[in-house]
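Table 4 source record.
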Amino acid sequence: MGNMKDKLNQVMYKAQHSAIREFSNLAKKTPGCVALTLGEPDFETPQMVKDEVFEAFLHHETHYIPNNGSPELREKIAAFENEKHGHSYTADNIIVTAGAEEGVFLSLFGILNPGDEVIVPVPAFMIYEEITKMCRGKFVPLDTSDNAFQIDKNKLASLITNRTKAIVLNSPNNPTGCVLNKASLDAVHDLAKEHGLFVIADDVYQQLVYKPGCHSIAEYEDLKDQFFLVQSFSKPYAMTGWRMGYVCMDSEIRERVELIHQFMITSTPAPFQRAAVKALDFNPEPFLEIYKKRRAFMLRRLKEIGLSVTEPDGAFYVFPSIKKFGLSSSEFCSRMIQEVRLAATPGFAFGSDDHIRLTYCYSDGELHEGMDRLEKFVRILESEGRG
C-alpha cells in the first residue's frame, strides 16, 4: 500500500514550519540562552478581563453560541472599530475568530481560486505566503527593503496581472515595526479601486503605535466592500493564549465566508466572549509607554553596536540589517546562539535574508543582557574581518 504519508494533500509537502518557533525552540534547548524571538507581550492579561471569565462560568455561559460570536461581542466590536478608527460597521459585518490567523485564513480561503495571485509587501509575516499556497494561490512578494519599507506605486502596479485577486497589508508591520505612510496607502487604494482587488488589512498592531497620524487602509470607505479587516485581542491586551480575534467585511461577503468559519471551528469559546467584550474597554496605554522606553533603548544600543535599522513606529520589533557581515540570516542567528547564547529570528523567515528580527516585548533585564550579547557577537564577527 505504500507509505500513507505520501498520500496527503499535495500542498502539505510545500508547507514550511515557522522559523520563529524553530529558533525559539533552539534557544530553549541551549542552557542560559536569552531569546528575543517571540512576539508575545510579557504582561499579564488585565485582571478585569480575567475576572469576566469567572463571571461567565457563574452565569453558566458554557453552551453553544452563534457561530459568528455573541451578539453582545459583535456589537461591541462594531462600536469599538467605528469609534476608534472611523469605520461604519454593524454586528452583521463581523465574525469572531480563533485569533487573527483564522481571520487571515478565512479571508484568503474565501476569495482565492487555484492560480489566483496575492501581492504582499515584504518583509512580511510568513503566514500570508503559507496560507496563500494552501489555498492553491500564488504568493507575489513586493520588495520594500529599498524604500524604507514603504510601497512604491509603480512597483506595485508592475506586479498586477489579470490573475491578481488581493493585496495583503500589515501596518504596523511584523517584522519591521514600520507604519505605512499616506503615499503607500493611497497607492494601494488607487490600484485596488482601478483593478477591483480585495485588500486584506492585518491591523493587529494598530493600538501599538508610537506617533500620531497612523492610518489604516481600511479607513477608505469607498473600498469597504473590497476589505477584510483582521484584528486580534492578542497583542494590545496580552491575550495571546486566548486565541481571540475578529474579521470585519461586507455583510454580503460575510454570509458566504461564515460557512468556512462554521465548518472549521463552529465558534470560539463561549466563556471568552464576555471577557473579550471587557477587553475592548481596557486602555493599553500603560503597555504602550513601556514599549516606547524599550524601543528607545533598543535603537540606542543598535546604534552603539553599529547596526543600521529603520526606526519602527509601531508594534514591538526592530529589524536591523546584517548585510555587511556577508552571512545568511540563518547562519548569523545559528552562530549567535552557539557563540553568545542569544536567539533572534532570521530575516529569511520574513522574506529578507539580510536582516534579523529582535523583539522587545521582554523584561528590561532580558533586553539589556540580550543587547550586550549581540554586541559581543558583532565584535567577534568584526575580529574575523567581517563588517
